[in-house]
């Protein structure tokens, strides 16, 4: 239902010029790992000092050794904050949705920033990175994180949002280190994860029946999120804090962002945008893989 409705929503700004697609894709491909490290260093300068995480440079290790990746997730989980800690004294003024699309060996990350009160668009950007990590459930941050950080780095400093909302897990993760938590800890910004299915945890049945109703999601004797009925006739969605947001505030923010669709506006619009970039990129390169 969401996909059908999404095709009826016009994109307010041109997605991009064809030449811009080539420029971004070529630049990302040439950058390689060295370019990624340089970009990450640049983005890190825009956030508070992360001296509290001595291993921060290794939050995206070059090795794909499982033990090393698990160590990283333990670091992420140990530094994740499930309390409300927003930069703005008056709370959240802007919120951004983040979503990825895939074509050939490329990962496209789209970010759309909205005014939190009105949910009107303020800014949008994207990045295209070469996929260098396989799809492995519970390790998505290592696959998609590079493109997300690249896209975030392209946002004007004065347009960076107060909170990022991802269509991925937060602390509702086997090691409490989903993608929303991983990126939140790396950038030290508030994040929320919203998904369509439960990765881990259970809730008390029956499922929420009325729009707006919810049930706590519990994993390892810890409340890690909510099962939320967001639209009539659709299965519930899963809402979880990522970093610097409490469990209770996470669901209130998502409720505020619902506009009659199953998914909240930030991630719904980011999904539309990322797939529009994918179509343009695929048409330019005569490929329609994935």
UniProtKB/TrEMBL annotation:
Pfam families: Endonuclease_5 (PF04493). The keyword Cytoplasm applies. It catalyses: Endonucleolytic cleavage at apurinic or apyrimidinic sites to products with a 5'-phosphate. It is an enzyme of class 3 (hydrolase). GO terms for cellular component: cytoplasm. Its main location: cytoplasm. GO terms for molecular function: deoxyribonuclease V activity; RNA endonuclease activity producing 5'-phosphomonoesters, hydrolytic mechanism; single-stranded RNA binding. InterPro entries: Endonuclease-V. GO terms for biological process: DNA repair. DNA repair enzyme involved in the repair of deaminated bases. Selectively cleaves double-stranded DNA at the second phosphodiester bond 3' to a deoxyinosine leaving behind the intact lesion on the nicked DNA. Belongs to the endonuclease V family. This is Endonuclease V. It comes from Candidatus Methanogaster sp. ANME-2c ERB4. The lineage of its organism: Archaea, Methanobacteriati, Methanobacteriota, Stenosarchaea group, Methanomicrobia.
